[in-house]
Amino acid sequence: MATPLAAFGPGVVIITRTDTATPLAINVGSAQEMSLEVKGNTKALYGTQQFALAVARGTVKVTGKIKAALLSGLAWNSCFFGNSFTAGYDHYYLNEAHTVASTTQAVTNATGGIVDLGVTYASNGLPLQRVATVSAAGTYSVVQSTGVYTFNASDEVALNFNYSNFSSASGQQLNVVNQQIGVNPTFQLDYYTNLNQPSSKPFGARLFSCVADGLTLASKLEDFIMPELSFEVFANNANQVLNFDFPEVS
Predict the structure, then answer these.
(1) Mean pLDDT (whole number) for 134-140
(2) How many CA atoms lie within 13 Å of 32's alpha carbon, on the beta-carbon side?
(3) Torsion of CA 190, 192, 198, 199, to 10 degrees
(4) Which of 205, 193, 206 is nearest to 236 (CA)?
(5) Strand partners, 68
(6) What does the pLDDT look like over 10-27, one tens digit per residue?
(7) Where residue 198 falls among pLDDT bands split at 50, 70, 90?
(8) Which CATH number fits domain 12-83+176-245: 3.40.390, 3.40.50, 2.160.10, 2.30.110?
(9) pTM for this prediction
(10) What is the H or E stretch that residue 33 is in?
């Protein structure tokens, strides 16, 4: 008896950007969900009776969603943003503890300057107020190019500093800029899954031209961020929309 074609799990999702001179193929790592919906608009013709005399289908819309377990700047850029990367990234230092012994205090990681994200009292978590010139307790000023904070003498206590600075030593930064309407990347999407491989029968699909219309990042307590990308499929220059691969004649 022949084994029926069955698919299990999210499968493998590979996207290939198609609007660049050199196509870049990216495996959307650790895919958690992949959905595809093909939906047509229908129009019914009625006479004097209850049921339609004829039904015709007009336009057809193909949409899909991908949910992944990994944060991939390359995948997001190829699907949605179509922008560029620079070397390095913003490193965040939160609740860096200091006991202020004078009216000034430099943060530990001031190389290249910082972006101030606030100061709080270590004892109770209450915030200090940033001002141009320190005049009273509970206020502070900062020179962001040097990472040096200034306080009132009454605040020579344990404080927590929150700040970020740019580190070019490693990593990369996706620089999203404001582009003209109508400028967006296009990509091909390939999907593959195989239950009990290699003895079972694989199922695959190729969506020739896609445009992303949504990228969702949601975080919550005791759970991982699962980025979700939604997209719409359209015909390419060869009038191809999608192919489904079946390992045998149905």
Answers:
(1) 96
(2) 11
(3) -130
(4) 206
(5) 31
(6) 889 999 999 999 998 999
(7) low
(8) 2.30.110
(9) 0.86
(10) strand 31-45
